[in-house]
Design brief:
The chain is α/β, with parallel strands linked by helices. It is 30% helix and 26% strand. The strands form four sheets. Strands 1, 2, 3, 4, 5 and 8 form a six-stranded mixed sheet that branches. This is ROK family protein. InterPro entries: ATPase_NBD (IPR043129), ROK (IPR000600). Belongs to the ROK (NagC/XylR) family.
């Protein structure tokens, strides 16, 4: 194991992927490895799948693991896109026991925020960086000078009587058949609310729709610079590796 390498695993609703990370550059060392998320996606079933990912690399050191959930003190408090039996699970203890080494568990958006802030779109920003993943819902991560405020759930903020993610998630655009222009109006409405509360210096947007940033970011009517995420599919893995001491 190289001194500057870490290992991260990103648990999603459909896939569990992991890889070795060069902590100097934030790049993966070799290919990532992916398995399907078990159905049902119970904690023990997912832990076994994570072990399969780790064993594929023969990794022996500590590991970071993301889950699509709020995590406090290693305990999962919510369940988004994973089995409800996760709620109340001591994930740190479960993964540590299953894998036989130190494991740090964190929210998936927080992991992406850590990675983008250090290696990606926010790497040269000294102030407050707000990462927002616009997908099925809105995931969020808030960082100040590299320090994470964990478990922000800004997607659930009420904006004019409706949850932010019910206005601005990309899934809403798809469900309603909106044009980029019409959707950008709702995104702007939500982002302006975040601006009033948080005063970010930079907003980084992730999720699949960030790959088409040129179609909608120029339409936003907000004061804060908005840029697409740079790491895309690797951000969760990289941030997980960072969380376990990388």
């Amino acid at each position: 194991m190289a001194d500057n390498h870490g290992f991260g695993v990103d648990i999603g609703g459909s896939g569990i992927k992991g890889g070795v990370v060069d902590m100097d550059t934030g790049e993966l060392v070799g290919e990532r490895y992916k398995v399907l998320t078990p159905q049902p996606s119970t904690p023990q079933a997912c832990a076994e799948a994570v072990r399969e990912v780790v064993d594929n690399f023969g990794w022996q050191g500590p590991i970071g693991v993301t889950v699509p959930a709020v995590v406090t003190g290693g305990v999962v408090r919510t369940a988004a896109n994973i089995d409800p039996s996760w709620i109340g699970t001591d994930a740190d203890a479960l993964f540590t026991a299953t894998l036989g080494r130190d494991v740090t568990v964190l929210n998936d958006a927080d992991a992406a925020g850590l990675a983008e802030d250090r290696y990606g779109a926010g790497r040269d920003m000294e102030g407050v960086v707000l990462l927002l993943t616009l997908g099925t819902g809105i995931g969020s991560a808030l960082l100040h000078k590299g320090t994470l405020v964990p478990n922000t759930e800004f997607g659930h903020l009420q904006v004019d009587g409706k949850e932010a993610e019910h206005r601005a998630a990309s899934s809403i655009k798809d469900a309603k058949g909106w044009s980029y222009e019409k959707w950008a109006e709702q995104v702007s409405r939500v982002f302006r609310e975040y601006e009033k509360l948080l005063w970010p210096d930079l907003i980084v947007v992730g999720g699949g729709i960030s790959r088409k940033a040129e179609k909608w970011i120029p339409m936003l009517d907000v004061a804060t610079p908005v840029v697409p995420a740079a790491l895309l599919n690797t951000a969760g893995i990289v941030g997980a590796a960072m969380a376990c001491g990388g």
